[in-house]
Specification:
This protein is α/β, with parallel strands linked by helices and about 550 residues long. It is built from 16 helices and 12 strands. It has a 5-stranded antiparallel sheet, with no helix packed on it. Helix 8 packs antiparallel against helix 12, helix 13 packs across helix 14 and helix 15 packs parallel to helix 16. It is elongated and about 105 Å long.
């Protein structure tokens, strides 16, 4: 777990000896202000939670005022797993780099992780989190509810960003409880069908007139066209062989053999080169940000005008889920197949030219042959797209009637685990006579966590708080963070009860909870019992007039 944090830019915590010490269970960041500052903003409470998220591989800190205003500085920190200490450093200027530090927090460039992903894998391993279906950040991020990070989730506490769908959030919940694998194949089949349908609907709505977006309607007719092209190609080969027959018998036989071999090899080479070319286009790094995902459409529509589609805002998100391909590995594999073919073609061509004594007579033949083969390949690709689309439709039709009842059972099982914990929270925080917070699934694509009869601000925020604490208790989730804005409308006895509930979570082994609170100096708004809880669990106290996290309030205009 995370044990300490310090930075040379932190006020009062600018060295390892003055590091902010953290602990298992509840960790309270308290911001104390005069009565005139009602909100308690700009002390650094939220920033500190953003920094913890940054330490856990997140990026929300990069959008804070502190990141922009504090200038170049480093964040040092230490984890402790299974009794062993691990020290690290992340810098503002190289925020995608993580350095492994010595016991005195010194490090060199050689101590840098190869990538941020490698660092996240280290954390996942140490926290014993299964990332086969859900990435480390997808485990952590929805449960760090911090000002300027979390979207307006309302009754959807798993909303990680403004573009996430309820369906995706439900799948996240299924993955947290290790139930997604039971339906993964069926989900992927039905999702593929939906993505293709969405692409076509969006194109129609935006009046994108691209013939490549419509599949052939008559595969038999396309097959006939291919047969006609193959016939033309065969006749071309016959004409070519007529020239060969004028040579002596032995040479003619050998030239005919070479010609037949070259025909087969060139066809293979054309197909391999076409695949390599498409993969390289998909994997280009110099195109517009969305181009890599746009190229995925070529899996279905190879001739699609990507530049035309790219101009349509929002189209990218619909295309990115159609198919995923392994670019570099596939290109390497295809190049390995291509190399011996190129070498053999060159050898056969050299022998052909040597025997025929004419290097130029083949050029018209080769151009016409390539043209016919290109047309055949295009028609074959149309057939392939048609049959692929039919397979997707048929597989989705078979999967859906099985998927819905199976997923419904899984969600009911999950709700039966979570709702008793939410009921316990409701009874202890809201009161025995108050309606309980519940996790409800309207169907397999819609959910809510709320008190059905109360949509007041206080209860609206208490529901996700209860949900996060339930997931912390029931799953492998190791840490959560709740910012002070979640408590702004929770007052009096209800707030005291909430703090007591947080305090009771100290019994969870190996788990951490970070919360930030705002407290006015006078009059003291918290009860004696709540003050005692805060005193036992506080890890950082921030105040005005130079005692903010960074020693200054960037919302105040400085006098010249």
């Amino acid at each position: 777990m995370l044990k300490e944090i310090w930075s040379e830019r932190f006020k009062n915590h600018d060295s390892p000896e003055k590091a902010i010490q953290l602990k298992a269970g509840l960790n309270v960041v308290i911001g104390i202000t005069e009565t005139g500052n009602e909100s308690g903003n700009s002390l650094g409470k939220s920033t500190f939670l953003h920094i913890i998220d940054f330490i856990l591989g997140g990026e929300s800190f990069l959008k804070t005022k502190s990141f922009k205003n504090a200038g170049e500085h480093k964040i040092y920190y230490m984890f402790k797993f299974s009794g062993k200490e691990f020290r690290f450093c992340r810098t503002v200027s190289k925020h995608f780099a993580v350095y492994k530090c010595q016991s005195d927090y010194s490090y060199t460039e050689a101590d840098k992780y190869d990538s941020l992903d490698d660092y996240k894998k280290f954390l996942a391993t140490q926290y014993k989190i299964d990332t086969s279906e859900l990435s480390f950040r997808d485990w952590i991020s929805p449960f760090f509810k911090i000002f300027n990070k979390s979207p307006n989730f309302k009754d959807r506490p798993l909303m990680n960003n403004t573009t996430s769908s309820e369906q995706e959030e439900i799948h996240t919940l299924e993955k947290i409880f290790n139930r997604f694998l039971e339906i993964k194949e069926m989900v992927e089949v039905t999702a593929k069908r939906k993505n293709l349908t969405d692409v076509k609907k969006y194109a129609s709505k935006k009046k994108i007139e691209l013939k490549e977006l419509s599949l052939i309607s008559n595969p038999k007719e396309t097959k006939k066209e291919i047969e006609a092209l193959e016939s033309n190609k065969h006749q071309l080969l016959e004409n070519q062989n007529a020239y060969i027959k004028e040579l002596d018998a032995k040479t003619s036989i050998r030239l005919a053999e070479i010609n037949a071999q070259l025909s087969i090899l060139r066809r293979k080479r054309n197909r391999l080169n076409s695949q390599i070319s498409n993969l390289k286009k998909e994997n280009t790094k110099e195109s517009a940000p969305a181009a890599e995902s746009f190229e995925l459409l070529k899996q279905f529509f190879p001739d699609v005008n990507i530049k035309k589609i790219e101009a349509i805002e929002g189209f990218h998100s619909k295309l990115s889920e159609i198919l995923k391909t392994e670019y570099e590995e596939k290109i390497d594999e295809l190049n390995k197949q291509l190399k011996p073919i190129d070498e053999t073609i060159q050898e056969l061509q050299n022998e052909f030219y040597s025997l025929s004594g004419n290097n130029d007579f083949q050029m018209p033949f080769l151009k016409e042959y390539a043209n016919l083969q290109s047309k055949i390949d295009d028609k074959m690709a149309e057939l392939e797209r048609y049959y692929k689309n039919q397979r997707i439709i048929n597989e989705a039709k078979k999967a859906k009637p099985v998927l819905i009842p199976k997923e419904t059972k899984i969600l009911n099982d999950i709700a039966r685990k979570i709702n008793p914990v939410l009921a316990d929270f409701s009874e202890k925080v809201l009161g025995t006579n108050y309606c309980k917070i519940q996790l409800c699934f309207e169907d397999t694509s819609k959910y809510s966590v709320s008190v059905m009869t109360d949509d007041g601000t206080s209860t609206t925020y208490l529901a996700p708080i209860a949900f996060d604490l339930a997931i912390l208790k029931l799953s492998l989730l190791p840490v959560i963070a709740h910012d002070s804005y979640l408590f702004s409308d929770t007052k009096g006895k209800r707030f005291d009860s909430l703090m007591q509930y947080y305090d009771s979570m100290n019994t969870l082994v190996g788990k951490q909870i970070f919360i930030s609170l705002h407290q006015r100096k006078a009059p003291n708004e918290f009860s004696n019992r709540t003050n005692q809880i805060i005193e036992r669990n506080k890890v950082l106290v921030l105040q005005e007039n130079g005692n903010e996290l960074y020693g200054e309030n960037w919302s105040i205009t400085k006098s010249k």
